[in-house]
Amino acid sequence: MAEFIRFDRISKFYGPLCVVENLDLGIDKGEFVSLLGPSGSGKTTLLMMLAGFEQPTSGNILLDGTAINAVPTHKRDMGVVFQSYALFPHMSVGDNIAFPLQMRGIGKAEIGERVKRALDMVQMSALVDRRPSQLSGGQQQRVALARALVFEPRVVLMDEPLGALDKQLREQMQLDIRDLHRRLGLTIVFVTHDQSEALTMSDRVAVFNKGKIEQIGTPRQVYDEPATRFVAEFIGETNLVEGVVEAVQGQEATVRLPSGAQIVSAVSGTVASGQPVFLSIRPERVDLSETRGEARNVLETEVTDSVYQGDHLRVQLQNATHPLIAKLGRRSREFPPGTKVFAAFSAGDCRVIAP
Amino acid sequence: MPMKIAKATFATLTILFLVAPLIAILPLAFTSSVILTYPIPSWSLRWFEELFFADAWRRAIVNSLIIGTGTTLLATVLGTAASLGLRNRLIFFRGTIRTLFLLPMVVPAVVLGVGMQVLLAGFGLTNSYLGVIIAHTVVAVPFVIVSVTGALAGIDERVELAAQSLGAAPITVFRRVTLPLAMPGVLSGAVLAFATSLDEVVLTLFVAGPNQRTLARQMFSSIRENISPAIAAAAFLFIAATIAIGLVVVLSRSMLAKRR
Amino acid sequence: MSATSSRTGRSLLLLAPLLLFLVGFFVWPLFSMMSQAVSDPAVLKLLPRSAEVLTGWDRKSPPSMAMQAAMMEDLKAVDDDQALGDMVRRLNSARSGFRTLMGKTTSALADTANPPADLISIDKRWEKPEFWLAIADALSPYTDRNLLAAVDLGRNAAGAIEHLPPDQSVNRVILVRTFWIAALVTFFCAAIGFPYAIIAASLDGWKRDLMLAAVLLPLWTSLLVRTAAWFILLQEKGLINDLLLTLGIVNSPLALIFNRTGVIIAMTHVLLPFMVLPIYSVLITIPKNLMPAAASLGAPPLRAFVRVLLPLSLRGVASGGLLVFISAIGYYITPALIGGPGDQMISSIIAFYATGSANWGMAGALGMVLLVATLLLYSVYARLSSEEPGRR
Predict the structure, then answer these.
(1) Residue scoring higher pLDDT (C294 or B249)
(2) Which residue from C329, C322, C324, C328 is spatially nearest to C380, judged by alpha carbons?
(3) Closest-CA residue of chain B to C324
(4) What are the respective helix, strand and coil percentages of chain C, to the nearest 5?
(5) Are A99 and A156 members of one domain?
(6) Same domain membership, residue C268 and residue C194
(7) Which residues on chain C are in Cβ contact (under 8 Å) with A76?
(8) Cβ separation of C1 and A55 shorter than 8 Å?
(9) Could you tell me which of C137, C150, C144 has the C-alpha nearest to residue C39?
(10) Which residue of A has its CA nearest to B181?
(11) Which chains touch B (3+ CB pairs under 8 A)?
(12) Of A203, A231, A259, which residue sits at a domain end?
């Protein structure tokens, strides 16, 4: 696949404040890339620069090999979906969707045809004459989506488009958008601070922190192989345990914990023996039992609390030097507080992260 | 319970104090007598006839319409343009400029009148329609500014960004999105500008000549010199117009609210 | 970057017309009014040669021949009787006697058949340095005379500032009266408006709408109409006196118009909305459950009011009070129509000086006093309302 969008050493300053710092990012044609990060991490600013609402302080944005820094927004041919929907309050649903087609000087008959098709696509045909204020949040979002897609833009940009919807509707829309992406072969850049949304929808996720990309990869990569402590903590829940590298063997390393226990773990990046590191252990990868089993890594712990959470049991453990959290499936047996248990996990279920 | 009665009594009395004077003079517009007192001997429209056919009153009404229209046009155009300019947060001294725009509302009319007379005399604009329109525009513009900046502040900037991203050039964004959304504010600003001009007396006293005597000016001197029920008839027209204007403003506000 | 700067350029282009308009027709008039207050060209305009010679004078010794010659030439060159009158009036106000002296001098100078040798031969008074001193002091194009007179001060012969004699001290009385009437009106507006706003904010539905409409209707009604209404109601045979007589509360009609009572009633009515609305807008932002919360914590209603509602609403009362006071000190129409001669406020006096006696200097000076007072109070008001929580 050819690289379609390229951010080339982009920086953005607001006065002395640096929002995006020397950032490089390439996006392929037809790809769905999420920009994920906490608020203020620069992800929305990057999207705004791509849309042309903001100008980078330095660096180039290329679209299909051509720099577009000097191209004004209205000539960039990008469909933008906003969190607040940004529908024209003085126009009907139909007029909202017809707007980009009118701007392109398309004939009346064709506009009618394409508006109808776009409305069908988002299942809103019945409400063509309504005003935006007469629609629910979810309906407004569908109209905004139809409006951003109807003129077949080269790229679709979405700025937290589902942030204002309730959970159920949000999950439905996530699937709908993913479906549209596949069906129409759209190139989508999607900004969100919701990690599960990013994991659900994207081909690749770029994790943002303080104006930089901490890691970019498939959902599986960023979840299972976090490259940095920030990524490990921001995506999903994890146990972070300090330790020192004893030895490195290929893709695995032996880490000694303060308690003296030795853990064999997969490695992200490069570490050297003697280096202080973090171990990231996902709670759902931890097994508990009262007998020391066959697993490679075993920690002796005591149960301090056990909370029933419907789909899983959340067990708080205390080792000699650090706490640990385990999430157990419903089939697992329960351990009352005070029980001495062995926490076991394989080398592939934890990750060494250089601090 | 006694507290409740006290509250209700107080509220009723105050409402009476506020509204009763306006209502009490309405019937006097229809008196057949030449004096402005109750009881009214019999009903008649003679004072409305006086208002519309007596030379002084008729000319005053015509002058008020001419000057009011001129003021409305000038104040609305200047005020709307300036409100649009004020939206840009990058403008230096934005707050100071805004304060300057609102200040004519605060400066005592007599002070402004003295200065205005000196200045307009220098330009040879005293005793001219243009002079009066200029003076009225100065005091009407703040109302347009308040009204239009209010409407503009209510526009979600992302709606305009969305229009741009959908392919609309800046001028098209303004024509198709910004202006229609600000229109209720512009209209109510225009209405307020007209009402301000209609009611303006003090500046008119200073800058207008006998040929630009407005309705308000005519009412002022007739209260002073020879009060007649024509005043009540004029007041009746004013109050009726106020209620009409009030309805227009309320309707346009609710139109604005409905769009949110 | 170029997009930003072109946007800024466009904004400036939109701002420019109104900015220029207001600088030309709002700021400039105010400045020219103020410059009227301090400018004093009446003497300098007619005596340019004397002005030159007088700069070399030591202000003590008797007039030199050069001074007299310059003065005679200046006076001969005068061909504008009105300007001459202005100058004589100005000089006479600084030192009495100039009227006769100048009259005598100009007619002597006009006698071409028998030209006088010097001024002293026309009138012995020209020998005295005091008269020359008065001329020398009046030659400056600027003066603080009007500004001082606006607060009943003046300069004595030695140039020190002192109080004007009581028969000329009218302005301070009027200033005090203006502020007193404004304070009374503010007080009555607060006394009526504060409880009214509290009641309105505590209600909902049509009752609240009615109470607000009762405030808005007069606010939107022409000021002149409201004043006219009070004029009609307050007359000796007006509705209020009729009502009082019919009800037997009074035996003879009360004097309600052309006096202080009428002015206060009418101005309170006119300005009440400016008190009610700011207080109301503050009150509706106060969560309704605060008073029940205070009660649940053991505060009796009055204490709950004093400790909770009052401090929270004080900002509204302060802005409303300032708004009413600012408007009241500049009022013209209502005192002019409803008040008697003893109720005229500073605006009326300014209007009198400007249109009645064409004394632009005094009109400007008093205008400046009123303008400065208004702007000072307004800056307090602006600060107060910009500190509102949730607003920047």
Answers:
(1) C294
(2) C322
(3) B106
(4) 75, 0, 25
(5) yes
(6) yes
(7) none
(8) yes
(9) C144
(10) A90
(11) A, C
(12) A231
Chains that touch C (3 or more CB pairs under 8 A): A, B
Whether the predicted pLDDT of A286 surpasses 80: yes
At residue C202, the pLDDT reads: 86
Q: What's the pLDDT score for residue C25? A: 92
The domain of C218 spans: 171-386
CA distances from A151 to A148, A187, B18, B248 (A): 7, 14, 58, 39
B223 CA: distance to closest CA in chain C (Å): 7
Decide which of A196, A231, A266 is a domain's last residue. A231
Residue numbers in A near C1 (CB within 8 A): 55
Asked if B161 lies within 8 A of A80 by C-beta distance, the reply is yes
- Answer yes or no: do B165 and A80 touch at CB < 8 A: yes
The answer on A168 and A261 residing in a single domain is no
- Those residues of chain C that have pLDDT short of 50 are 1, 389-392
Alpha-carbon distance B137 to B68, whole Å?
Answer: 9
CB proximity C6 to B under 8 Å? no
A90 Cβ under 8 Å from any chain B Cβ: yes
In terms of domains, do C91 and C223 share one?
Answer: no
What is the number of domains present in chain C? 2
The stretches of B166-214 forming alpha helices (DSSP H) are 170-173, 179-199, 202-207
pLDDT value at B126 more than 50:
yes
Residue that terminates a domain, selected from C140, C163, C192: C140
Q: Distance between CA atoms of C220 and C207, rounded to whole angstroms?
A: 20
Question: Among A199, A211, A162, which Cα is nearest to A39's?
Answer: A211
Q: How far apart, in Å, are the Cα atoms of C196 and each of B9, C105, C288, C372, C384? A: 11, 71, 17, 32, 22
Model confidence pLDDT, tens digit, residues B138-179: 999 999 999 999 999 989 889 999 999 999 998 999 999 999
Domains, chain B, with CATH or none: 45-259 (1.10.3720.10)
Range of the domain at A311: 238-353
Q: Would an 8 Å CB–CB cutoff place A105 in contact with chain B?
A: no
Can you give the pLDDT at residue C392?
33
| Inter-chain CB proximity A100 and B176 less than 8 Å | no
The verdict on B181 touching A (C-beta cutoff 8 Å) is yes
Q: What is the pLDDT of residues B215-235, one digit of tens each?
A: 999 999 888 887 888 888 988
Q: Tokens standing for C76? A: 């001969």
Best residue of B158, B166, B255 to probe chain A, by most A CBs closer than 10 Å: B166
How sure is the predictor about A155, in pLDDT bands with cuts at 50, 70 and 90? very high
Prediction pTM value: 0.82
d(CA B204, CA B117): 10
Smallest Cα–Cα separation from C368: which of C150, C181, C154, C170? C150
C5 touches chain A (CB under 8 A): no
**C37, part of any domain:** no
Query: pLDDT, tens digit, for every residue of A175-218?
Result: 989 999 999 899 999 999 999 999 999 999 999 999 999 999 99
Cβ of residue C4 closer than 8 Å to a chain A Cβ: yes
Q: In what order do the strands lie in the sheet with A340-345?
A: A287-289, A340-345, A297-308, A312-318, A323-329
Closest alpha carbon within chain A to B180:
A90
ipTM for the complex? 0.89
Indicate whether C332 belongs to any domain.
yes
Q: Residues for chain A: how many in total?
A: 355
| Distance between C1 CA and the closest CA of chain A, angstroms | 7
Asked if residue C352 is part of any domain, the answer here is yes
Measure CB to CB from residue B239 to each of C4, C18, C221 and give the nearest one.
C221
Please answer whether residues A57 and A22 qualify as being in contact, where contact means their C-beta atoms are separated by less than 8 angstroms: no
Average per-residue pLDDT for chain C = 85
Residue A136 touches chain C, beta carbons under 8 Å: no
Cβ neighbors of C75 (< 8 A, separation 6 or more) are C46, C105, C106, C109
Residue B154's region, left for phi above 0, alpha for psi from -120 to 50, else beta, is alpha
Given C101, C120, C140, which residue is the final one in a domain?
A: C140
A249 and A111 both lie in a single domain: no
